[in-house]
Amino acid sequence: MKVQKCINCGTQFRYKSIQKSIWSGYKSIICFNCGAVHDFKFIYRLLVSVIIALPIFFTRWISSVASNILWASLMYFGYLFVAIGVLPYVIRYRLKSNNLE
Ligand SMILES: [Zn+2]
Q1: pTM above 0.85, yes or no
Q2: 1 FRET partner, CA 20 to 30 A, in 32, 64, 68, 87?
């Protein structure tokens, strides 16, 4: 698994810049080498929201495994922590159409 490369020049994006892009509200990423602007693909915005909301659909299962609310929230944050760590390898950007003439 690797983070995405710049579609224009092939420079690998930094893991941290993708994290920052996600948590600043799906901001575009600008390649530090050639300046090409990459937009967050809509489908991945959807994916991020689904991943974060997913445990809500498993609350029954979580409450049957976790003996109390503290364990349940620990499990949820543990899950989030892993999900957030993996996301930059999953997310893909597309080249913004009108930024390079
Ligand atoms: Zn580039």
Answers
A1: no
A2: 32
